[in-house]
Amino acid sequence: MTRSRGGTDGTPLLSVRDLRTRIRTDDGWLHAVDGVSFDVDRGETVCLVGESGSGKSVTCESLTGLVPQPPAEVSSDAVEFDGESVADRSEAELRSIRGRRIAHVFQNPQSALDPVYTVGEQVTEPIRIHEDVSRSTARDRAVDLLRRVGIPRAGERLDSHPHEFSGGMQQRIAIAVALAGDPDLLIADEPTTAVDVTVQARLLDLFRSIAGDGTSMLLVTHDLRVVAAVADRVLVMYGGTIVERGPVEAVFSDPSHPYTQALFDSYGVSDGASIAERTARGEIPTDGCRFRAECPHAVDECAGGAQPAFRSVADSSDHAASCVHYGPDGDPSAIRENATSPMDSRAERGAERRSTDPAESPATPTPDTEGERR
Fold first, then answer.
1. Going along 239-323, which residue ranges are E strands?
2. Residue 264 bridge partners (DSSP)
3. Tell me: the pLDDT tens digits for 332-350?
4. What does the pLDDT look like over 88-110, one tens digit per residue?
5. 3-class DSSP state for residue 16?
6. Rounded-to-integer distance, Cα 189 and Cα 221, Å
7. Are the C-beta atoms of residues 239 and 54 closer than 8 Å to each other?
8. Residue limits of the ABC transporter domain (predicted)?
């Protein structure tokens, strides 16, 4: 079933303004999300990218009340979904939105799927909760969903338990459960992290298919290959804030914030400790530019006060960086003069990989042999 997505007035499906989540720890308050604002348009795929601990997952879970309060405290100027505020909804009201209108795919399918119940029971449950259909109709829909996500012999495997499937198959089943309510927005948290490159390629094909059907997606990842494969727009996060945003082509061809450049160059700049751990130890600033302690281009203006304002990059209103060097008194050439484009620097290696790396080329949905053996 395909439901009308609405929104003919041009308003975004999801609009978030100044989202803040702080978590009480033994060492005091941890500002996991610190003033995040973004939109997700209808039918658009937006990727939140950054190192582990940068606040990506907490941002997504804060939107629909999945962060336990306490120990967390969540506030915002506005969180609107389909033109209506969800920031002040009760837990009962949020439950009516979760699953039906907004669905989550969590990072670990082993913990997301209940080992006690069969796959069929878990896929049919959201269908029957949100729609008045018979058990047999829900079961038929569940078979169709499992086929769509690439589960072989879907009708037979409906009565299997999660432990009878491989990790890649479990992730597909978790996606089927999320799609069961026919959501307008799918939030997927690192959905390709725990699978090998062959399964990852199949999952990326699946996400492209979901987007092609008109479902909006907010995808959390630290894998730049995933971003390049599915994103329309990119939000780069560091230390609980967004430091750069823009269309995927613009950000990949011209990474403009010093952290984005470091991320592309090294897939991370940490010493092994997560950003959350370094923030708790006081190693990451909680004011001004969060990246300034590690930035080779930091100046006095980077310290103190609020996060630097977003400024357009290369006269593009869609591509912007939160960096003082793009302000009226700054010098963007100081950080962009020697910056290398990941599109250019990896183009030759990417061309070589495509002939051998399944994650770099379209994959044919074939049965998961590990799942078949089980």
1. 241-247, 310-313, 316-322
2. none
3. 888 876 555 554 444 443 4
4. 777 777 877 887 889 888 877 77
5. strand
6. 7
7. yes
8. 14-264
**Closest to 174 in 3D by CA, of 218, 108, 226:** 108
Report the C-alpha gap between 242 and 255 in whole angstroms: 14
Among the listed residues 256, 264, 194, the one whose alpha carbon sits nearest the alpha carbon of residue 228: 264
Q: Are 178 and 98 in contact (CB under 8 A)?
A: no
Contact 365, 154 (CB under 8 A): no
Secondary structure (3-state) at 347: helix
Among 87, 353, 97, smallest CA distance to 201 is for 353
Name the pairing type of β-strands 185-189 and 216-221. Answer: parallel
How far apart (Å, rounded) are the C-alpha atoms in residues 187 and 11?
Answer: 19
Tell me the torsion sign for CA atoms 81, 218, 52, 338: negative
Q: How far apart are CA 330 and CA 310, in angstroms?
A: 13
∠179-184-189 over CA atoms, to 5°?
Answer: 60
Count CB-CB contacts under 10 A for residue 95: 14
Burial grade of 35 (CB within 10 A; 0-12, 13-18, 19 or more):
middle
Say whether 227 sits in a helix, a strand or coil.
Answer: helix
Q: Is 272 exposed, middle or buried (0-12, 13-18, 19+ CB in 10 A)?
A: exposed
Instruction: Please name which of 93, 103, 94, 97 lies closest in space to residue 123, comparing C-alpha atoms.
Output: 103
Residues 260-300: tens digit of each pLDDT: 988 888 654 444 455 555 555 666 777 889 898 888 888 98
**Alpha-carbon distance 264 to 49, whole Å?**
11
In the block, tokens 């400024």 appear at: 311
CA-closest candidate to residue 34, choices 19, 16, 49, 56: 19
CB 197 within 8 Å of CB 360:
no
Helices (H) and strands (E) in the chain, counts: 16, 13
Could you identify the residue written with the tokens 């897939």?
Answer: 267
Residue 243 in contact with residue 290, Cβ under 8 Å?
yes
